[in-house]
Amino acid sequence: MPRPRKCRYVGFxxxxxxxxxxxIPSSLLEELVLAVDEMEAVxxxxxxxxxxxxxxxKMNISRQTFGNIIQSAHRKIADFLLNGKVLRIEGGALTxxxxxxxxxxxxxxxxxxxxxxxxxxxxxxxxxxFRRDNPPVSSGPGGNSETGTGSKGQNRGRCCRKGQLK
Length: 166
What we know:
3-stranded mixed β-sheet, alpha/beta, globular
């Protein structure tokens, strides 16, 4: 029996859920599914320029697992680009960051999962004067040791069950 999948950290939900070639109806195209954790691996390695070891730590997985995920993602993206298929992004055992807020009046801090609307006021005092309180996002390999971005456990949400993010 295989080992259960460990939840993988993903910084935020995808903005787009599918891509397809122009001018051809989706119904005529073969479909590929890119898991959200595969998309996150591509973002960290290819867009952010992180080394596999750093990206694996950020996703809370082993370097070997990260290598397997990025290899699978690259294969799917190449198939999508070269063979003109629909690329759908969904699913996976994920842990997702929350948006953090802090009240200017009482100093109370709280988190709201991505995908939920912005709160109308502080849950503690009801004040409408509050601000986002997430630390700055790392802009390169290794994260920022001063703010703690890139370290395990930083600003993690709850683990979603496989397939919940659609």
